[in-house]
Amino acid sequence: MAAASEPHASAFSAAELEFLAEDEIIEIVPNLRMDPLNFISGDFGPFRPQIATQVPLWLAVALKKRGKCTIRAPEWMSVDKLAQVLESERDSEKFQPLPFHYVEISRLLFDHAREDIPDSYMVRSLIEDIKDVRFHKIGTGLEIISKERTYALRLKNLSAMEANIVRPFITRALETFYKLSSSEMIQDSDHMPNRQAQATNRGPRLPEYQYLLLLIFSGN
Amino acid sequence: MANYYDIDDILAEEELVPSVFQHNANGVGLFDSSDDTNKVEAGSRLELPFWVVRELYLRQLISIRVPPCFDTESKTREEIAADAAHVDLRSRCPYFYELGCKLAPLIGDKTIGPFLLVAFRIRYREVLIKAHTLTMTVAPKYLTLLTNEEAKLYEAGQCSIAAFKKWRIGGPRFQIAPVLGRKRKPT
């Protein structure tokens, strides 16, 4: 992808992820009158004043910048819901289900539509806390792979930005562990008598793998 | 052979491995610079790059001695057993893991594999923490301890965190291309 000067850099830059996040649908309240807009991704409109309409985020931000609408915050972005999510994040070891692009969406909305979000300071600090807790959980998850022989790692409900941050690190780490473990297996096979030589040629056996590799984008 | 073009593989094979010649060899006095005759005696001990060593070993012209950093009684093993995270592997052998992986099947030393694995496991945890939390000012002292592989791992983590932080701060979404930077004065 663009701006990756070395082949092992993360597949997406942060700005590219934001671009992908802008396709999410959000509700706005326009204050202009306009005919339907026809795009490749769909038709949006017609826009009538004070009637709520569903549009993609990029269109909402563009209209907002020109002062033609107000954005209605998505329902997951309320103080109660986020406080609840934060509580459950802190209590459980799994990741809570959150919108896939919550980091990017929240940043875009805070940059362009801060006054449209009720209690924006609270919401912002809650989202930051949620992000920190999840990141810490990723850290513990990554530590686990050094304890047993893992060939793959599954992190359910990980958001796009978080997956993008850890992807290069974790793929290299898993590769190195795999390389080192397999040379160890070469040592083990030296003990076995020749009649079992065919068995070892099957490749490394996986008696203990703990997780499945799903570090491409998988929301669930 | 799969890594023929990989630069790190090539550099890893450049590392010196001590070996003992089994036969006399003419015309390769370059290896043994102690006297002027252009030959090497049988039984003389030399340090050769790994790629030479592997080929000569397969033709049974030399026998390999374990390099000091992997040796069973060496200081390195003791230090790693004591505190793997802070051992300065880069000064011993910057391609520690790669060389170990290549050497182990060749000389049939069965303890190298588990030893490397244990060392990497412990050091990996350190790299994990430091890559994601340290800023550039504090980092450089720790970086000198890491082997090449670990340094790349660290850098990967560091890069992505830095990019994320930079994005989060925000700023203009468009940047002027460097080509357009300076205005040219009309001469």
Poorly predicted sequence stretches spanning 5 or more consecutive residues of chain B: none
Give the H and E element order of chain B.
HEEEEHEHHHHHH
Q: Per the principal axes of the C-alpha atoms, what is the gross shape of chain B?
A: extended
Count the DSSP helices of chain B: 8
Mean pLDDT of chain B: 76
The N- and C-terminal alpha carbons of chain A lie at a distance of 25 Å
What is the CATH architecture descriptor of the largest domain in chain B? Up-down Bundle
Strand order of the largest sheet of chain A: 4-1-5
Mean pLDDT across the residues of chain A is 76
Number of strands of chain B: 5
Query: How many separate domains make up the residues of chain B?
Result: 2
Strand content of chain A: 5-15%
Separation, N- and C-terminal Cα atoms of chain B: 58 Å
Subcellular location (chain B): Nucleus
Pfam families (chain B): PSF3_N, Sld5
Domain GINS subunit (chain B): 75-167
Family (chain B): Belongs to the GINS3/PSF3 family.
Task: Write up what this structure looks like.
Chain A: Keywords: DNA replication, Nucleus. The complex is a heterodimer of chains A (220) and B (187). By secondary structure, chain A is mainly α. Helices cover 46% and strands 8% of the residues of chain A. Chain A contains 7 helices and 5 strands; from the N terminus they run H-E-E-E-E-H-E-H-H-H-H-H. In chain A, strand 2 and strand 3 form a beta hairpin. The two termini of chain A are 25 Å apart. Residues 1-5 and 189-220 of chain A have low confidence and may be disordered. Helices cover 47% and strands 10% of the residues of chain B. Chain B contains 8 helices and 5 strands. Chain B has helices at residues 7-12, 50-58, 75-83, 89-92, 96-107, 112-133, 140-143, 148-169, and strands at 16-21, 25-26, 39-40, 45-49, 62-64. In chain B, the strands form 2 sheets. A 3-stranded antiparallel beta sheet of chain B has the order 4-1-5. The relative contact order of chain B is 0.11. At the A-B interface, helix 1, helix 5 and helix 6 of A face helix 5, helix 6 and helix 8 of B.
